Model the fold of this input.
Amino acid sequence: MTKADIVDRIASATGLTKLETEAVVNGFMESVRDALIEGDTVHLRGFGSFKSEHRAPRTARNPRTNVEVKIGERYVPVFKPSRDLRDAVDKASR
Done:
């Protein structure tokens, strides 16, 4: 599913125009991104949480050339689904 598909579904469910819905979806994504950049956690009850986690520096290996590559420390966005979401996906997938 793409962002356009999400906009279509929300627009048809709410009666908003696609342009209005796209502005809302873009605003949501920007808000989550900005919160993660600031180091905040975004909790969406019944859906999950977005946060940024620190990754320590490490040494990796290129499997094709066997050359070691140093990867510096970094922060990565992480999503942790809520129990409700995990249960719903599990139930629907059976």
Observations:
- Residues 46 and 84 are 6 Å apart (CA to CA).
- DSSP finds three helices and five strands in the chain.
